[in-house]
Amino acid sequence: MRKLIGSLKYRDLRYTKNHPLRIPRVSLLMEFLRAMDLIEEDEIIESREAHQEELLLYHKEDYIRALQEADACMCVKRQHRERYNIGTYENPVSPAMWKGSLLATGSSIQAAEVFLKGGIAFNPAGGMHHAYPDRANGFCFINDPAITIEFLKRQGIKRILYIDLDAHHCDAIQDYYYEDDSVFVLSLHQSPEYAFPFKSGFLEEMGRGRGKGFNMNVPLPKGTKDRDYLYALEESLRIVKEIFQPEVYVLQLGTDTLREDYLSKLELSNAGFLRAFDMVREAFGEGIYIGGGGYHPIALVRAWAVLWCRITGREIPTEIKPTAKEVLLKVDFEEFDDDEDKSYMYNRLLDELNDEPVKQEVKSLMEKVRSYFLV
């Protein structure tokens, strides 16, 4: 059983104009997969909203009430803006804030439920890893990865591995499980020396108390390409396997690591992105798959489409069909570097792997990681 958790309702649950997450993502992926004949209707599970008791597995009740109030009037009280970080440019009041977040979170729990029944599911709307229990942060209002982890704990699972491949460090996840030895957090991301969230995601942050040694950060330099990234991931997974034996893992698959994404300085091809997914599966078997960041809609859809092919055992098509190309061309999105020819994204689905050798800077980084964790 291989399922995509999604809904076309996301078309109407968008962020405010000019926000990086205003772009179509899940609905565009569904339309593209259908146009490419890469999905059957019985492979789709319609997303459901998360329930109140599920939200409270992680979030504070007063914060949830503030989100509901803001959604009801599409406005925010000044004290709520200051206390909960709602209604800022980063975290604006919009239809995506509450109803979109509810759908994304319910979908991640659905993916976990499918997994627990012996199936495999991908929720591309998930991965909102910056939201704190009592405040919005980094475009995120409800932290579906943390809620999914707490849901799994309540099903009796005692050892959970959370792997975050988003370009940005999973600050709220790290903080919540920093003293918890039942959840191992592994994050590969842009170094906070130059990227959001700036204050966390450094190598030295390894956990505290019982959780010491169960939090691994791999802060990557600007210009990290396929071989750099895959080397760092392979070494990281090897170290984790020596330390932790998970019963299940949750894999966050943000596409902002791709070279076309303008909110990151990493330079992966979607072939590198796919290989990273393969490496995690080879190390730990099947897991629970959720989305994440990704701010170039065409790059995002191509990457998640090849991922879906891999999940379902389909052969990845070489060319994009004319009908699918039309779907992509209709996207209202303005390129920031329109001098660069990106026509390849509308013609072929899978990129070529960048074969530049691993940088010494990345090798040295992984030597440090090993010395920190394997003493």
Please, could you describe this protein's structure?
With 375 residues, the chain is an alpha/beta fold. It has one domain: Arginase, Chain A (3-Layer(aba) Sandwich). The protein is 38% helix and 10% strand. It has twelve helices and eight strands. Strands 2-1-3-8-7-4-5-6 form an eight-stranded parallel sheet, with helices on both faces. α1 packs across α10 and α8 (226-243) runs parallel beside α9. 50% of the residues are buried. The model has no long low-confidence stretch (mean pLDDT 97).
Features:
single chain; 375 residues; alpha/beta; Arginase, Chain A; 8-stranded parallel sheet; 12 helices; 8 strands; 38% helix; globular; acetoin catabolism; Acetoin utilization protein AcuC; His_deacetylse_dom_sf; histone deacetylase activity; His_deacetylse_dom
Question: How large is the count of helical segments?
Answer: 12
Please trace the helix and strand order, writing H or E for each element: EHEHHHHEHEHEEHEHEHHH
Stretches with pLDDT under 50, minimum 5 residues: none
Strand arrangement across the biggest beta sheet: 2-1-3-8-7-4-5-6
Pathway: Ketone degradation; acetoin degradation
GO biological process, one term: epigenetic regulation of gene expression
Keywords: Acetoin catabolism
Organism: Hydrogenobacter hydrogenophilus
